[in-house]
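Lecture notes, unit on protein representations.

Consider one protein chain, 70 amino acids long.
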Amino acid sequence: MKDIEYVKVEGHSHLVRDDSSHGIVNTDIEQYKLTMKRREIMRNTREEINNLKSDMDEIKSMLTQLIEKV
């Protein structure tokens, strides 16, 4: 298996280019950790919003049933 070789990206101290895939790789571990934390926060926020939407649908349904009985 061939070793992966990286070439520094000019003007960017934390970026390297993968020679085999030509992809850009960020080598800044702290930035990676921050990105993963932001993704987790966004995932939790989306989940909370979806739960609130579900709760609102349930409340609407209950109110509709209550109105129909009156």
